[in-house]
Amino acid sequence: MNSYLIEHWLDITTTLLGLLYIYLEYRANILLWLVGIVMPALDICLYYSHGLYGDAAMAVYYTLAAIYGWLVWKFGRKHLQKKGQEMPVTHMPAHLYPATISFFLVAWLATWYVLAHYTNSTVPVLDGFTNALSFVGLWALARKYVEQWLFWILVDGVSCYLYIIKGIPFKASLYGLYVAIAIMGYYKWKAMARQHQTNLTGDRQH
């Protein structure tokens, strides 16, 4: 048992941090970004040792993105946001979808090409997919868009499968749980966005 824990300690540690991260994300708590700095730093070692080079590279990006996300949540502003008010949860504006989809497709093809030609990755298509969509998901999370949960449902589902076939059981279980929590998070944030819109309507009427 001890040898098993020693062998998988990094997987277990990042899994526990991942649970804390998604709980804070579900609650829309800014502390999620602090966890988001530590967790991917450990993930770099975990993924690289299992040949998931795309995920290892993404973990570097996650660390930087967590710093960006904290700054946006702390100091960012949205249309009609009151001075001193915490940045609200809102829906992603429709005009952003074409550019977002285009960016995802280009990022997926580029990541797929790099993994297929410059690494010995055995899953370049799926690894590239999760990495490209994670770029979009992190950006949408940093902007507090409800739809970020939809992106993560896809990322988490595919990632769960990848970790199963790569022999990272705790991380696979975590991402399976992520899918369920992401579904609940989508409806929670949708309600938060609806409440924000109701408050704006009430303010206009007064």
Automatic annotation (TrEMBL):
Ranges annotated as spanning the membrane: 6-24, 31-50, 56-73, 94-115, 121-142, 149-166, 172-189
Cell compartment(s), UniProt: Cell membrane
Name of a matching Pfam family: NMN_transporter
One GO CC annotation: plasma membrane
Database matches in InterPro entries: NMN_transpt_PnuC
GO terms assigned for molecular function: nicotinamide riboside transmembrane transporter activity
Protein's membrane topology: Multi-pass membrane protein
Transmembrane keyword on record: yes
Record has Protein biosynthesis as a keyword: no
Major localization class: membrane
Superkingdom of source: Bacteria
Keywords: Cell membrane, Membrane, Transmembrane, Transmembrane helix, Transport
Family: Belongs to the nicotinamide ribonucleoside (NR) uptake permease (TC 4.B.1) family.
Chain's role: Required for nicotinamide riboside transport across the inner membrane.
UniProt cross-references to NCBIfam families, sorted A to Z: NMN_trans_PnuC (TIGR01528)
PANTHER family associated with the record: NICOTINAMIDE RIBOSIDE TRANSPORTER PNUC
Name of this chain's protein: Nicotinamide riboside transporter PnuC
